[in-house]
Amino acid sequence: MLYLQVTRHLVDSWSDCSFPEEGPELTRQDVYKLTVGSLLLALSIVIPLSMGGVLGVVIGPFTATLASHVPTFLAMLFGPLVAGIVGSGSALGFFIKLGPVVGFRAAMHIPVGILGALMLRQKVSYPVTLAILAPVHALLEALVVLLFGFTLQKAGFLVGVGTLLHHTMDSVIAILCWRALFARNTFPAGSPIKNG
Questions:
Q1: Residue 153: CATH number of its domain
Q2: Which domain holds residue 73?
Q3: Is residue 45 within 8 Å of 92, Cβ to Cβ?
Q4: What are the residues facing 64 on neighbouring strands?
Q5: Which stretches of the chain drop beneath a pLDDT of 70?
Q6: 95 domain residue, yes or no
């Protein structure tokens, strides 16, 4: 009964509100970017939560969950802000599922995604962008585990080389998705997604 009274009060108070007649209009491209970015963010959180440590490899500080980079790689096509937000979702998911070491490693998806989006804005093709980012991604993830007391050998070889291989596998998946989903001319005018 109390629930119904509170609900009725909220509805009555909302009906008295006046909303501005005009506000910023979203273009079709804005809505598309927001929708795809939201879906990629959801995937970047769900993949580590559902498959982290299960569908992959765990060796010391190194973990590789299949397709965990794909949402961030695809988000790069929609700009640095979207890529950074999707990368932060990945970090959150891995932090919750596998702890701080893997969570901080996954946080390196944020600068990798932003850098990739900036490269795409400079008209570097998508496959070349992913290839250039591979050693950068591996270096960042190797360096961040040093903060947790791992040796240079474990950080450099295990995490660095492992991330390089994992990045390459996920790049292939991302390129296949990009070609299947995004490489067609079905985008709003001015979309950066068509480069390739």
A1: 1.10.1760.20
A2: 27-184
A3: yes
A4: 57
A5: 1-23, 53, 183-196
A6: yes
Long-range CB pairs of 62-68 (<8 Å, 24+ gap) are 62/158, 62/159, 62/162, 62/163, 63/94, 63/98, 63/102, 63/105, 64/162, 64/163, 64/165, 64/166, 64/169, 65/94, 66/169, 66/170, 67/170, 67/173, 68/44, 68/94, 68/106, 68/170
Is 15 contained in some domain? Answer: no
Residue pair 83/117 in contact (Cβ under 8 Å)? The answer is yes
With respect to residue 5, please indicate whether it lies within any of the assigned structural domains.
no
Q: How many CB atoms lie within 10 A of CB 8?
A: 10
Q: What is the pTM for the complete model shown?
A: 0.81
- CB burial of residue 87 (10 Å; 0-12, 13-18, 19+): buried
